[in-house]
Amino acid sequence: MGARVGRWLVWSMAAWWGLSCVVVAPLDIPGKYPRGWLPDSALLFLLGSALGWLAWRGNGQAALRPPDWLHLSAARAALLSLAYLLLRHAPAALRELSERFDPRGAVSLLAEHFSGESYRLFFLYCADIYLLAGILVSGGYFFLHRRAGSEEEDKYLACLRSLASLPRLFVGQRPHWSAAARRGTLTVALKLFFVPYLTGWTIENALHLAAFLGPRPWDFYAVNQALMDGCILLDTLVFSIGYP
User: How far apart are CA 123 and CA 87, in angstroms?
Assistant: First the structure.
C-alpha cells in the first residue's frame, strides 16, 4: 500500500511538472509580474520537483534513498517557492475575496497590507535573489555539514509534512502534527511577515541615504544625520540578511 501511494505521489508531481511546462510556460513571460521576475511556471516547476523528490525519498527503499542533504534542501526549496507564490498572488486573491464577501473588513485590510510599499520594494529588488540564494545556500550548507540528528527533527521538513497531510481532515483523520512541525510552521509564518518588511525598510533607507549624500552644504547637522541614517541602514541590512 505504501509503495503504491509513493508511486502515485511521484507520478502526480511529474504530471504537475509537465503541466507547468506545457500549459503555463507559453503564457508565462519572465519579468511580466510587478511582484518578482521569476515566472509562475518556474516556481511551479521548482515546487513540483521538490515535492516529487520528497515523495520518492519518503517512500522508496532505504538502499535507493538519496543523501539526507538533498532531502533537507528539497524541503526548503518547496517552502521557498510556495511562499513566493503565496506572497505574489495574495493581494489579488484577497481583493477578490474582499469584494465578494467582506468589502470593508479584515480581508480588505490584509489585501492592503500585502500590497504595501515594503512588499513592492521586496519584489522589485530582492524576492528572486532571496529564493535562489536560499536554495543554493541551504544546499551547500547541508552538503558540507550534514545534520547529526534525524530528519524527523528538522522543523521545515516537519512543517511541509503537516501541510501535505491537511487533506486528511476531509476524511475525518488528524493531520501530521508534532513539536517540530509547530516550530517550523511558526518560523515560516514569522519569516513570511518580517522578511519583506525588513528588506523593504533596508531599500528605503538606502535610497534615502543616497539622496541625502547628494550635493549639499556639509555642516554638523548634515554629518550627524548622515551617520544616523547609515547606522539605521546597517541595522536593517544585517537583520534582512540574517533573519532568513
Answer: 9
Angle ∠(124,48,151) on CA atoms, nearest 5 = 100
Question: Residue type at 225?
Answer: Q
Q: What is the pLDDT of residues 168-219, one digit of tens each?
A: 888 888 887 888 888 888 988 888 888 888 888 888 888 888 888 878 788 8
* Residue keyed to cell 528588506: 199
The whole-angstrom separation of Cα 174 and Cα 167 is: 9
Asked if the model's pLDDT at residue 145 lies above 80, the reply is no
Q: For residue 179, what is the DSSP state?
A: H
Look up residue 217 and give its amino acid.
P
What is the reported pTM? 0.74
CA distance 229 to 225: 6
Which residues are CB-contacts of 183 (< 8 A; sequence separation ≥ 6)?
155, 158
Residues contacting residue 154 through CB under 8 Å, at least 6 positions apart: 72, 75, 147, 180, 184
Grid cell in block for residue 214? 547628494
